[in-house]
Design brief:
291 residues; D-amino Acid Aminotransferase, Chain A, domain 1; D-amino Acid Aminotransferase, Chain A, domain 2; 2 domains; 7-stranded antiparallel beta sheet; 16 strands
Length: 291
Amino acid sequence: MTADTPFDKRDGYIWIDGEIVPWKEAKVHVLSHGMHYGSSVFEGERMYNGKIFKCNQHSERLHNSARILDMEIPISPSELDEIKYEICQKNGLTDAYIRPVAWRGSEQMAISAQATKTHLAIAAWKWGTYFDAKKRDKGITLKTAQWRRPPAECAPVDSKAAGLYMIATLSKHKVEREGYDDALFLDYRGYVSESTGANFFAIKDGTLITPTPDNFLNGITRQTILELAEEHNIPVEVRHVMPEELGSFEEIFLTGTAAEVTAVGKIDNYTYTVGPFTRKLREAYETLVRS
């Protein structure tokens, strides 16, 4: 099996609705509500050296995401924690990416989904860096997306809901065709928001700046970086960021469970260095998750 092997053709095991089944047998019916109406929530987590980073925090967030979508996860956060470790052990993994996902089933096919059952699956696999590791020391490239993040009044922005990623896929496809690694979203007001799957940080005059999370998910890795900045006596500003400011920033990086701490070398026509603050916080994060 290689990194290019389709995900439905891989070997191993997946936990689904209370059973551990062979990977290739983990099936969902084509008429599941989650497939047709986007009623699905998920998490992305990493295991380092046999320990899932902030495991319970992710489990609690999955429950919260489901509640926001009027779904109920059928097991408790602590039970979720145990199953995540169980499936990693079953697959012989000590360093892994873990994907819990919950979705509405096929009991009812309509906008209303009162009669549907909430299904749950947990998969885990070996996965390295999200972006090209060769770009670690020069940074990835971003281009501003044509789509914008919606306001909280128009979408469940505090939920890690599958449907919210539709514009992320469209935006990432477009900029990849133009030679960029990822897209940068502005929000409905024109403020800098996030990338397609990671939160945004910038450095200016020794201060760490990050957008106010009022229309995007306040990532667990984002919160961790803010904690690390405080520990390292780095001043922090959480505020709205205008796109006109992009040219004045000295360093920019993205954070997320998949992206970890990824330096940015270019946004549109602006270029940046992978400077000392990015390196310090990246090293502090890597030390923390492996401790």
